């Protein structure tokens, strides 16, 4: 912890908040304060914005190969410091070290992917239909960006946004979640070491998000917002972005259905459920929320899943052998407790878990509920915890209707051995991503994003850089 920056990163320099304010960073496993970091206010945000604006023109002119090599160096540094970054992440947000190491590798891969995309930005030349003019298309960076990242994947969500912005030639102001600022500050230090010019990336850690972000979005100099977080906050940011017509990418909430048909391989389905539900203790927008299991296999699926969930070891993420760390804070745990209590009051059976352990820390046990009533609150709420709620269904049309009966549409999971059914159901699910016989869809090479109230735009994949580029059309008269 002693080597981790705790100041704001503005214009290539580490500085205190203008008013001297700091905020604590807590360890969710113990409730103890790890350290204090600078708590930025509106003045600091304007300084960060100014640094990004001043650096934009020169950075946009920088050769794509230079931008590519900076990202490649940063990728290599991240991998070299896997253990250091994993311990830092576990300390501030709780996930077990094995999972944190996996996130470090995942985060680094975004930098490698976009280092390769940086040199593949192209345009085009064509003759217009009337034959009198040529159409020359070029692509250029959208301009200074505001990047807002969540606490659940503090390193990977940073690289998923910073990578394409750097590759496209955009400068940035990054505002990480107040619960997990240390991973973002460590990432800024790595990029500086990798050769990123001063002012291209600026990091403002703050507990005063509204005071910091709203003036930037309404001011007109920030031209792009990329946000990952809740739908409610995303809707507020969209409204604030409208005044200056800021371009937006929104990766918002989810309410993922996990569908198990009668012909599913139950070993595959349970393996997939463990990944889709328990990745990051269930604190993921991609987490399976509603388990729709065909009535003929529901009892067996529930039994197997409860057995697997019951074997998981709960404890501090830094302890050897721990599978499930603490939830992010007491408020997050209280939400999970209330949702489970509501489901049980409505008749759900607890197959495993369901009781909060005594002692310090924000722990909640892996929990499986069967016979969940469709009117339970957890059916239309993003649980963000290690709770699998099982409902039964009888036919295909019924389960598709129920799976789609939500304002969210990020991801869905489907388990069946029938190819026809797999294609048919996938096409009818109102989601941006489908996991077919797998519980993991996230990959830097794939376009990540949802439909309906789950967001706008895509991150990652070949299209990820498009969010940070504009087209310019040049009409060339030919005599």
Automatic annotation (TrEMBL):
Q: Which InterPro entries match?
A: Ald_DH/histidinol_DH (IPR016161), Ald_DH_C (IPR016163), Ald_DH_CS_GLU (IPR029510), Ald_DH_N (IPR016162), Aldehyde_DH_dom (IPR015590), Aldehyde_DH_Superfamily (IPR050740)
| UniProt domain Aldehyde dehydrogenase: residue ranges | 14-472
Query: What one GO molecular function would you report for this record?
Result: succinate-semialdehyde dehydrogenase (NAD+) activity
Keywords tagged on the record: Oxidoreductase
Active-site residue numbers: 251
- Provide the GO biological process annotations: gamma-aminobutyric acid catabolic process
Superkingdom of the source species: Bacteria
- Which family does the entry's similarity section mention? Belongs to the aldehyde dehydrogenase family.
Q: Which named protein is this?
A: NAD-dependent succinate-semialdehyde dehydrogenase
